[in-house]
């Protein structure tokens, strides 16, 4: 084992990976942008709240501050290359929808832009934006949920039906093994 005494900043901070990235879709001032966010979390069932952490350095940060709503989409591993391109290209300099010929799905509840090709998506009404160190946590109340019924068994994602995209850090992607161990409620 190796130990680090952490002062202001650790040498790296990726121990909570792998994580499922989402692609944030946001529109403000007539401009749509998509960016992946690995720092995302469900916060509450009642009301249903979901949040994404975004650095103020990112173009989408300003759009999220200005917008009243946004979307997040969950993608299969087969789209890892696209997700990486979206994260390594700034919307400040590039219209990603045009440059990457992106399929944009309009949300039914809020009209938010959703990146096509997802197996699940949330339409989120922004409820808060909390500065948390070097990121802002944008919190949204879920107002619409999209699901590919073929990707799920009951209420859970089925890894034998869809290979959920995982991010391992430092531009490395993968997917979970299809083997499941159901431990029941015991």
Please estimate the helix content: 10-25%
Task: Trace the largest sheet across and list its strands.
Answer: 2-1-5-8-9-4-3
**CATH T-level fold name:** Pnp Oxidase, Chain A
Distance between the termini: 33 Å
Explain how this protein is built.
With 186 residues, the protein is mainly beta. It has helices at 59-66, 80-88, 96-99, and strands at 22-28, 31-37, 40-44, 49-54, 69-74, 104-106, 113-115, 120-132, 135-147, 152-153, 156-157, 166-169, 172-174. The strands form four sheets. The protein has a seven-stranded antiparallel β-sheet. Strand 10 and strand 11 form a beta hairpin. The chain is globular and about 50 Å long. The model has no long low-confidence stretch (mean pLDDT 95).
């Amino acid at each position: 084992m190796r130990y680090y005494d952490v002062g202001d900043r650790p040498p790296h901070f990726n121990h909570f990976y792998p994580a499922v990235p989402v692609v944030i879709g946001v529109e403000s001032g007539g401009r749509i942008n998509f960016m992946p966010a690995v720092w995302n979390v469900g916060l509450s069932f009642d009301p249903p709240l979901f949040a994404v952490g975004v650095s103020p350095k990112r173009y989408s940060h300003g759009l999220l501050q200005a917008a009243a709503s946004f979307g997040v989409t969950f993608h299969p591993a087969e789209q890892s290359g696209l997700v990486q391109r979206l994260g390594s290209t700034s919307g400040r300099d590039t219209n990603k929808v045009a440059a990457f010929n992106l399929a944009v799905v309009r949300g039914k509840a809020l009209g938010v832009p959703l990146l096509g090709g997802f197996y699940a998506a949330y339409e989120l009404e922004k409820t808060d934006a909390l500065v948390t160190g070097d990121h802002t946590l944008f919190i949204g109340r879920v107002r619409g949920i999209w699901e590919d019924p073929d990707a799920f068994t009951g209420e859970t994602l089925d890894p034998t039906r869809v290979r959920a995209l995982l991010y391992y850090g430092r531009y490395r992607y993968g997917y979970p093994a299809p083997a499941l161990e159901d431990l029941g409620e015991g």
